[in-house]
Design brief:
- The protein has about 230 residues and is α/β, with parallel strands linked by helices.
- It has one domain: TIM Barrel (Alpha-Beta Barrel), CATH 3.20.20.
- It has 9 helices and 8 strands.
- Strands 7-6-5-4-3-2-1-8 form an 8-stranded parallel β-sheet.
- Strand 2, helix 3 and strand 3 form a beta-alpha-beta unit.
- It starts with 11 loop residues before the first helix and ends with a helix.
- Bound molecules: pyridoxal-5'-phosphate.
- The site of pyridoxal-5'-phosphate has 14 residues, from strand 8 and helix 9.
């Protein structure tokens, strides 16, 4: 993948600084507050020394795809750095909900009723405040997770009324073979129609397109840590 400005030899601190510059430029160009866009550093499949380097550079918000890997990466570090925030950005199986609720600060991939029910129960049990995003399958791809757009209003209603979940916004992963901006604009429209504030969209290759369209969380792995 080609990532503008990325240099394999660059230390992680410089990669993070460069991405903050790119966020600033994209936000200012769109007339948005720079601080309205948060950088989620995606640490999946990265070695501990690279994660340390990101922490040393001041990064505190991280994204992980898998519950078990996230526990291995973060269980000890969360004790050392109490201000670390972790987002789950990969699919969540209901048999991992207990661990996920204990570890994460946001679930970005809420995508079905069974999961909403399981999360609701576990959140009550652990007496925790755990905001969630609903993943939307904007391209309606058969192999991809996420609620199809037509089912979103009903699903949001279910999550709020039946499960009392704290739904803050929407997340999407656009199809690889389509212009991502179309999907970002669509997700933003869905969020607006449903009165939701947060939009998790944009990865290493396309976050500069997601910011003018309203991204509040961008999820960057390769652009910070290099190839996995
Ligand atoms: C891996 C992953 C990312 C990061 O992708 P990069 O292209 O490496 O920045 C973002 N979002 C999700 C859901 C991912 O699984």
């Amino acid at each position: 993948m080609f990532i503008r400005g990325f240099n394999k030899r660059m230390p992680i601190a410089e990669n993070i600084a460069r991405i903050h510059q790119q966020i600033k430029k994209a936000a200012q160009g769109a007339g948005r507050e720079v601080l309205s866009v948060q950088l989620v550093a995606v640490s999946k499949m990265q070695p501990p020394e690279k994660i340390r380097a990101a922490l040393d550079a001041g990064q505190r918000l991280f994204g992980e795809n898998r519950v078990q890997e996230a526990q291995a990466h973060w269980a000890a570090l969360k004790g050392e750095y109490p201000d670390i925030k972790l987002h789950l950005i990969g699919p969540l199986q209901t048999n991992k909900v207990k661990e996920a609720v204990a570890l994460f600060d946001m679930i970005e991939t809420l995508d079905r009723e069974k999961l909403a029910i399981a999360l609701s129960k576990e959140i009550k049990k652990q007496n925790k405040n755990l905001p969630c995003l609903v993943q939307v399958n904007t391209g309606e791809e058969v192999q991809k997770a996420g609620i199809i757009p037509a089912a979103l209003p009903g699903f949001l209603d279910f999550c709020r009324r039946e499960c009392a979940l704290d739904i803050r916004g929407l997340m999407c992963i656009p199809p690889v073979d389509e212009p991502p901006a179309l999907h970002f604009a669509f997700l933003a429209k869905l969020a607006k129609e449903n009165n939701l504030k947060e939009l998790s969209m944009g990865m290493s290759g396309d976050f500069e397109k997601a910011i003018p369209l309203g991204a509040t969380f961008i999820r960057i792995g390769t652009g910070i840590f290099g190839e996995r």
